[in-house]
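User: Could you check the structure of this?
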Amino acid sequence: MLGLMSDFPLLLHRIIDHAAKFHGERKVITRSVEGPIVETNYAQIRARSLRVAQRLERDGIKLGDRVATLAWNTWRHLETWYGILGIGAIYHTVNPRLFPDQIIWIVNHAEDRMMFVDITFVPLLEKIADKLPSIEKYIVLTDAAHMPQTTLKNAVPYEEWLAEADGDFQWRQFDENTAAGMCYTSGTTGNPKGVLYSHRSNVLHSFIAGLPDSKNLASSDVCMPVVPLFHANGWSLAFSTPMVGATLVLPGAKMDGASIYELLDTYKVTFTAAVPTIWLMLLQDLEKTGAKLPHLKRVVIGGSACPRAMTKTFQENYGVEVVHAWGMTEMSPLGSLCTMKPEYAKLTGDARLDVQMKQGHPPFGVDMKITDDAGKELPWDGKTFGRLKVRGPAVAKGYYKVDSDAVFEEDGWFDTGDVATMDQYGYMQITDRAKDVIKSGGEWISTIDLENLAVGHPKVAEAAAIGVEHPKWDERPLLVIVLKKGETATREDILGFMQGKVAKWWMPDDVVFVDEIPHTATGKIQKMTLRKQFEGYRLPGVEAAE
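Assistant: Sure, the predicted structure tokens are below.
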């Protein structure tokens, strides 16, 4: 027997319909790429999104076609997403931080037909456009007055292109499992892989994202997604924020600490989200200026592990709650958030920080387990390391144009490639990527724990730990350090600071200082590059072991 409920497909354009109807005057504020602040609202965003949809159809874009965006977080970028979605086409966010060859590869692999691009990235595209044969037209996200001279094929300014549509248009109707968006993994090994979201998966993920133990979003919030829309589906904020009717503040192209602070303060932002490198710049600016954050209540930090010192500074110096989060492009991307269950709620000081260093517990919609290499489930004791596997309605079951991949198991589990522990209350903690964990004497050493500890040193800006070949122990840890500007430190300073804070056999065998640590386009440390850089490195004491 089936239920007697209405057939109401979970389509993403219903989100902007809801926001426009019930929160229509709620502001959407953008620092435009051209410079000035632009204020609009959800009703206007919907009206212009309808014109985008109408105009795309006039250009021949149809159900299932891929339309690329190479753009910052702005109101125009948001309009293009909903316009693309509203006709059953697929938004494909291209990460401008990728190498040109990677951009060429993913645009060609996706077979994008059109490209929306901010003026910032026009020079980048001009250098590679002759290698992007599937792109028929470039829509430059600006007006005629700011339109650059360009050699891009059929390039037109967005505002002129949009003016040719009157908005007298109805969203197209289709199955909720229709593909909606596409995002490629950062490709630390091999070519990037395409993850293809559906309308249904994105709507469900948006519900998941807004839950009280997730981002806890409400119409009373002022939300600023600093995380770019091209980074793992923008952490759902392009959907979950209008879904609840919160005010939206979009930072555009200026991502330095002072510019981020200006928006946080001016518009009384209550909620924001980004990777640790952004917050490092903000905290450095606050330290320099002495400014405070009286309006900000919560900051979600993910993308890479949040340093303990960063959490402590936000909470103790500025009264801002830090929610440590974890996820993957393949998970739409949220997997877990470190909000406090009653079992931990009364903890204070270092004991509370110990819990907050975990990646947290999964919300409803994400199932999770840890296993050994044979697939046997491991205990949730907070100590046993295992392969982290997940499943759920917003978790991928395959990659675009890839027939099969071993990470997708037959019973619906996705092997994340992370190594993690689970505690008795369901809090997960990433200890490493499976390929990055240091295996010393048959035991595993967590590089993330070593890095987080080292970054707690007041002179350290960034740290990376890698395994270096050792004749007796197979591998031993080498710590690579970037010092804060103007600071000096020695190997002994760093190791002395770490002494007694980790198991003795976990202590790095050596420390090297560098000007810069290599990162992927999404801000993650490129461990493979570091391992190549230090291939053959001779650790102190190796001669005695040989």
